[in-house]
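Consider the tokenized backbone below.
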């Protein structure tokens, strides 16, 4: 178990980064126990940390508890090559609850991390200068008609 020790967790339940896929309703997590990507249907808004039942086939001891997923804006495809996936024979061993030096090496490798994003610029569009307020569009004064001199 020493290969997997720098784990983030909440209340003893692992906290994994969620990566986006082509399916907007889905989130993908890298699982270093199974050496596989687990895909989940989003159970909440894509910016909210939520609890998911584990999709693990390697069945680590927290299998029954599941894990937290913290969604990020990083696409799975962007970090896919950093995931050391199990080969078929390694997956068979993992499923049987066994391990192997090559499996332990992959489990100890750094995990895919969300990519740093530049801070989002405020999307406020510059407001158009307000046009000068017009005055009333109708005359408010009436022409004064000069009084006629009184007839003598
Ligand atoms: Zn797993």
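A designed sequence for it:
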């Amino acid at each position: 178990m020493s290969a997997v020790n720098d784990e983030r967790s909440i209340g003893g339940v692992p906290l994994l980064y969620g990566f986006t896929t082509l399916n907007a309703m889905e989130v993908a997590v890298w699982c270093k126990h199974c050496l596989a990507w687990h895909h989940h249907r989003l159970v909440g808004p894509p910016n909210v940390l939520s609890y998911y039942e584990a999709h693990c086939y390697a069945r680590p001891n927290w299998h029954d508890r599941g894990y937290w997923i913290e969604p990020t804006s990083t696409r799975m495809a962007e970090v896919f090559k950093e995931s050391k996936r199990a080969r078929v024979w390694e997956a068979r061993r993992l499923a049987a609850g066994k391990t192997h030096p090559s499996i332990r090496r992959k489990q100890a490798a750094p995990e895919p991390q969300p990519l740093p994003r530049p801070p989002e610029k405020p999307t406020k569009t510059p407001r158009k200068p307000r046009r000068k307020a017009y005055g009333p569009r109708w005359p408010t004064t009436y022409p004064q008609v000069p009084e006629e001199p009184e007839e003598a």
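Strands lie at 9-10, 13-20, 26-31, 36-41, 50-52, 67-75.
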